[in-house]
Amino acid sequence: MRLYIIFVLILGSTSTLCSQMRVENLNRGLVAVRQHDGYYLKWRLLGNEPYNTSFDIYRNNKKINDRLIVDVTSYVDSIAPLNSVYNVKAIIDDLETEMSSPAFIINNTQGENAGFFDISLRQPADGIHGGKYFANDASVGDLTGDGEYEIVVSWSPNNARDNSHRGISDNVLLDAYTLNGEFLWRIDLGPNIRAGAHYTQFLVFDLDGNGRSEIMVKTAPGSRDGKGHFLSKGTASDADHSIVYRNRSGYILEGPEYITIFDGLTGAELATADYWPLRGNVSDWGDSYGNRVDRFNATIAYLDGERPSAVFQRGYYTRMTLAAWDWRDGKLSLRWTFDSDDPGHEQYAGQGNHSIHVIDANNDGRHDIVTGSAVIGSDGTGMHTTGMGHGDATHVTYMIKDHPYPQIFMPHESGGHGVSLRHANSGEIIFNHRNPNDVGRGVGAEIDPEIPGFHFWGTHRLGLFDMNGDVVGDVPNSMNFIIWWDGDLSRELMNRNRIDKWSISNNSSTRLLTAEGARSINGTKATPVLQADLFGDWREEVVLLREDGQALRVYTTTMPTTHKLYTFMHDPVYRVAISWQNSSYNQPPHPGFYVATDMDFPPPMPNVVIVDNK
């Protein structure tokens, strides 16, 4: 296996040379979006390339740019025949690299600011309990090893249930498709995995470094892999797949519980082990009917600073547990476990959110786990907890320019804690605006280039806060997802099928995109199917559900930019954020360095190793 190794200093460190994290071998990600009589082209700057890498653009094998493209990774070919063939070449140290793969052509446009394409879906037949299926959360990984992303989408029946509600649900299904719409496989989690936002958190990532992503998810007797076979490996080898453990209320409170790795290319089962921890005595989790025992989150994290591990969380209202798993050399093994019931961990009980996040909190080159009001270290030991309890949203990134450590912003559900901002390494509170209500939503981001720096807001009209906790404006008209879309370094507001630009001084927004013919998912949560830097330059794509439910619709921006950044998918913190985005109450991704109007250039080079596809 050939490795490309780049040595850089971790952000915030002045003398420590850390190990490099292994990331996907992505191709150039060149796309050409129809714009008037020509095409808007954009492509990736890869994480192992010098920042001063320059580019040439070829249309139908003929170079069309007069001067090297240095300052951006985009280009407007103003007059070009429909379905022209484009390629890009990188020039590094005055040497030309290989020609890229041909551009992915997008001929559908939405107004002046976006192109889009559809990924047709194979909608399942209605479930045996009458549930009608609709596409729900998704994630991406290079399942085939070709340097392009494929998408894994979950199918949820309309009889899915919140943990607090009784009722029988139909099975949860996972499908894989290429971006061209080719169907790869379907995994059926079976009758012993209840359908609902808090039950199935699936991870898509290359865990063993073979150049292809695997899928990791909680399973049970009755689960079938992508080849249609019942689970048969490890602790599932003697499973009785005919038994349905569901009780009359629809809850599944007995029977085996597994964790399974599936092959990304075929969907075949690779390994199965007992889930940790098993549910045990249901009432030990805070109630006796099955609500709190089955509250799950999951993420990928680089716990050793080099290779990815999978972290699965069970419980957060009372007892809170985490298990870190490794899939290496064909073996599935536990790295460490954490349990708030263990002596010395009592203060971590009840300190989890409806999401899970990852950041290198203390700049040691290894990822730590943010559960909400607590941070668990890369070695599975507790780093700190504020004791402020559960919340419904979390934002974690570098929010203060030139500060050596990242920050955590979150709203709180109870205790009158309102919203808080703290340092991720120590838990030291920067500001805390108290409120007697359940602050159900909150956002932390830079949203206005005219007023650089991060701002924060939440429900109950607490105000728009700056880094000092001072009110500087009205609450924006959205507190959902945030997205890089319009070309500046601030983020835009993403809610339902709309993207808006917020002006703090005018207390108003400007509509940039209404994705007509497409809709969000997750009911009132109104989240995208997925938001990620899927291809093109550093800005993000948004995946919605076509109104008829028969296809995913992928939108990409055509707004001009003067900025050049590395693809966010080679920033490990951002990349693993795409893995956790589907957990419970979906949250938008953030990178592992400071990105805002006043950021320094050149940006930090990703501290990564690009693994060859085998």
Automatic annotation (TrEMBL):
Listed InterPro entries: Ig-like_fold (IPR013783), Integrin_alpha_N (IPR028994), RGI_lyase (IPR041624), RGL11 (IPR034641), RGL11_C (IPR049366)
Alphabetized UniProt keyword annotations: Lyase
DNA-binding found in the keyword field: no
Protein name: Rhamnogalacturonan endolyase/rhamnogalacturonan exolyase
Keyword Cytoplasm: no
Source organism per UniProt: Natronoflexus pectinivorans
Superkingdom of the organism of origin: Bacteria
Domain Rhamnogalacturonan lyase family 11 C-terminal: from-to ranges: 118-603
Record Gene3D superfamilies: Immunoglobulins
Molecular-function GO term, any one: lyase activity
Residue ranges of domain Rhamnogalacturonan I lyase beta-sheet in the record: 22-102
A Pfam family: RGI_lyase
